[in-house]
């Protein structure tokens, strides 16, 4: 097998996997949206099911978008390689290049404009605290999202337990959510003594603890994208010279 044929096979297999994965993701997204009534009925029929499970329906739009993009990319790569279509290979290269540039630009913005990012996070924190004080314990969606987040990260509020002071939950029960006291009786004194970390600081710690893994995954994805662009351009140039 010559180098050109080998690259065609590699390009076809690589993009075939992308296409199939995109189709699966798209199919799940479409099913979630089309059969939302049945899914909601199933979720509501589960005894003790958390209220926040109904929010899974909103993920359908994201799945449809991601699946559609992956299918387009996979099709362009497969068709361009097998049919030796320079147009398809060029489109595949351009789309992948745009995605790669967007990723690099996002990383640069985070690094260069760190003070701006911190300012945005502070504003987000203010909004989150206001939402807690206004709706936690009264709005099922807000309450469910925060309960899931606090349970998963083993944290309390955005900053700490004081975020829940004067919230509907605190006013009605005269205590704080169970995660703020490690799921024991959560009075003001217990919450103050246990000092469970806020969810934002826990998230930062989690990212720092897994920085090496996240960096490796990011570099791996970047390497795959660059390799795919290089292979598509080699095929493009080879087809041109034939």
From TrEMBL:
Keyword Disulfide bond attributed: yes
Location of this chain's protein in the cell: Lysosome membrane; Membrane
Main location: membrane
Sequence intervals crossing the membrane: 12-32, 59-82, 89-113, 211-236
Alphabetical list of CDD domains matching this protein: uroplakin_I_like_LEL
Keywords from the UniProt entry: Disulfide bond, Glycoprotein, Lysosome, Membrane, Transmembrane, Transmembrane helix
InterPro entries membership: Tetraspanin/Peripherin, Tetraspanin_animals, Tetraspanin_CS, Tetraspanin_EC2_sf
SS bond partners: 155-199, 156-181
Keyword Disulfide bond attributed: yes
UniProt-listed PROSITE patterns: TM4_1
Function: Structural component of specialized membrane microdomains known as tetraspanin-enriched microdomains (TERMs), which act as platforms for receptor clustering and signaling. Participates thereby in diverse biological functions such as cell signal transduction, adhesion, migration and protein trafficking. Regulates neuronal differentiation in response to NGF by facilitating NGF-mediated activation of NTRK1/TRKA receptor tyrosine kinase and subsequent downstream signaling pathways. Plays a role in the inhibition of TNFalpha-induced apoptosis.
Entry's family note: Belongs to the tetraspanin (TM4SF) family.
Name of the featured protein: Tetraspanin
């Amino acid at each position: 097998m010559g180098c050109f044929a080998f690259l065609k096979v590699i390009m076809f297999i690589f993009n075939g996997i992308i296409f199939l994965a995109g189709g699966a993701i798209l199919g799940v997204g479409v099913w979630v949206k089309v059969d939302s009534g049945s899914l909601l009925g199933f979720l509501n029929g589960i005894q003790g099911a958390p209220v926040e499970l109904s929010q899974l329906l909103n993920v359908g739009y994201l799945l449809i978008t991601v699946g559609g993009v992956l299918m387009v990319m996979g099709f362009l790569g497969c068709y361009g390689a097998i049919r030796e279509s320079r147009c398809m290979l060029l489109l595949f290269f351009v789309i992948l290049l745009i995605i790669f540039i967007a990723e690099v630009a996002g990383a640069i913005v985070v690094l260069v404009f760190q003070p701006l990012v911190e300012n945005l996070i502070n504003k987000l924190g203010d909004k989150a605290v206001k939402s807690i004080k206004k709706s936690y314990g009264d709005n099922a969606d807000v309450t469910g999202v925060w309960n899931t987040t606090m349970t998963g990260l083993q944290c309390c509020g955005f900053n700490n337990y004081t975020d829940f002071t004067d919230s509907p939950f605190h006013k009605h029960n005269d205590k704080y959510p169970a995660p703020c006291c490690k799921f024991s009786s959560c009075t003001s004194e217990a919450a103050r003594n246990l000092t469970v970390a806020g969810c934002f600081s826990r998230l930062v710690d989690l990212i720092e603890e897994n920085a090496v893994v996240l960096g490796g995954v990011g570099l791996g994805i970047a390497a795959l994208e660059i390799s795919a662009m290089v292979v598509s351009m080699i095929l493009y140039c080879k087809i041109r010279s034939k």
